[in-house]
Amino acid sequence: MNLANKITLARIFLVPVIMFFLLIKVNLGSLAFNDFEISYNQIIAAIIFIIAASTDGLDGYIARKNKIVTNLGKLLDPLADKLLVAAVLISLVEMDKTNALIAIIIISREFAVTGLRQIALLEGSVMAASAWGKWKTAIQITMIIALLINNFPFALIDFPFDQIASWAAAVITVYSGIDYFVKNKHLIPVE
User: Fold this and answer.
1) How many CA atoms lie within 13 Å of 57's alpha carbon, on the beta-carbon side?
2) Angstrom distance (rounded) from CA 89 to CA 106
3) Quick one: average pLDDT of 131-152?
4) DSSP-based helix, strand, coil % in the chain, nearest 5
5) Distances (CA, A) of 130 to 97, 145, 177, 179
6) Residues 50, 53, 58, 63: what is their CA dihedral angle, to the nearest 10 degrees?
7) Residue 173, H or E segment
8) Tens digit of pLDDT for each residue in 44-99?
9) Longest Cα–Cα distance in the chain
10) Where do transmembrane segments lie in this chain (predicted)?
11) pTM, entire model
């Protein structure tokens, strides 16, 4: 258990903490000014989500820099990412902050690409993250943060950035999924 794997595990352990603040009805009060209001629960969940999401690049960087890449890390890192995004998306649907269709598109793509990665591993190859996959991750994280903080500061000027980011994330997610399958079609048995 090296430092990179510990950071990845910390990301996994932060998921239920975020869920606690989003879904458990513990009212810590809210922050309000003008027509904008946000609960302290959401602020705390957003801060923890940002910390957890930022560890994604950190664990990989540490593993590569220190030459401590392990099979456990290769397994846990994408799992941690998917758990974090899926859990928060499902919570946001439960809170009526995002469309269930967007959550289904994003989570389905993650399952499909994970399945393709497993096939690649069985064939003895590793699928590297594509540029589209990195863009997908960046826009998903941006979307989730915007939804968690009630579209602040855009809500102050009635600009639906959170909804635009949500649909953009869905489109880029689908495109990046198609890109993975097209580039790795040789892995898919067609018999």
Assistant:
1) 7
2) 9
3) 94
4) 75, 5, 20
5) 29, 23, 10, 9
6) 160
7) helix 161-183
8) 999 999 999 998 888 888 888 988 888 778 778 888 999 999 999 999 999 999 99
9) 62
10) 12-33, 39-63, 137-157, 163-182
11) 0.90
| Residue 34 burial (CB count, 10 A) | 7
What secondary structure does DSSP assign to 66-114, as a single string? TT---HHHHHHHHHHHHHHHHHHHHHHHHTTSS-HHHHHHHHHHHHHHH
Q: Is the peptide bond before 153 cis (omega within 30 degrees of 0)?
A: yes
Give the pLDDT of residue 191.
64
* Closest by CA position to 30, among listed 158, 162, 164, 152: 152
- Provide the total of helices (H) and of strands (E) in the chain, helices listed first: 6, 2
Binned at pLDDT 50, 70 and 90, residue 187 comes out as confident
Number of C-alpha atoms within 13 angstroms, CB side, residue 134?
A: 5
In the predicted model, what is the mean pLDDT of residues 122-138? 82
Residues 6+ apart with CB under 8 A from 14: 48, 51, 52, 84
Percent of the chain beyond pLDDT 70?
99
